[in-house]
Amino acid sequence: VNTLDASAVVHAYHEAWTSKDFDTAENMLADDLVVEVPINDYPTAKSFAAAVAGTASITTNVDLLAAMSAGDEAMLLYDMSIERLGTLRVAEHFTVNNGKIIRIRQVHDTAPVRAAGLGG
Amino acid sequence: VNTLDASAVVHAYHEAWTSKDFDTAENMLADDLVVEVPINDYPTAKSFAAAVAGTASITTNVDLLAAMSAGDEAMLLYDMSIERLGTLRVAEHFTVNNGKIIRIRQVHDTAPVRAAGLGG
Prior knowledge:
The first copy, chain A, is about 30% helix and about 40% strand.
C-alpha cells in the first residue's frame, strides 16, 4: 500500500479518530483543509479537529459500512452511535494530496443533530 | 466496460433518472430492491421509482461531484437543485447484483426537505 494514496490516508484518519487518537487524526489534515459540512462552520483544520474530538468523545460506536476510492478521492459510509442522539448515518468524501487530507465533505441528516442540541 | 459491473450500472441509473428517462431507471432496480433513506419509506422498487420520478420532476439541475466503486458497490456524491428547496447535497451508496441495483442507501439533510414540505 502506498501510504500517500487516498485509500490508505483516509483509512488511517478514520481509524485514528474512531480510536480517539486525535493527535494522529489532526496530523493527517492539511493546514489549509477545506471543510464542507451541513451544519456548523470550521474555518481551520484545528477547529475541525477539535469538533471531531468533541463528537468522538460522545460516540460509543462507529460501524463502517462502505469504503472506496478513486484517484486522489475516497468515500466512506458509516453509522455513528452518539449519546443523546442515537444512530447517525454519515457519508464522507475526502480529497487527498501528498498524504494529507485537503478537503472533507460530510453528508448527514441535521434534524437529529439539532434535536439533540448539537447544532452550532 | 462490463455492463454488469457496479460502476457501469450505477452511472447508467444516474444518467437515466437525471435525464428523466424513468422507464430505464426503474428497469435497473431489482424487484426486491432494499431502500434505506432518512425520510419517507419505500417498501417496493416501484414506490421508490415513483418517488425518484416525482423528485426529478421538480429538479432543475444535478451536479455530480464524485463517483467511485469497489466490487459490487458504488457511491455517488451530487448536488441537486430542487424547486422551493434550493440545493440539496446527496450521497448514495449502491449494491449491485447481476446488473441490477439491489440496495440503495441515501444520505442527505432532511431539514430543508421538511421545510419545503417534501417530507412524507
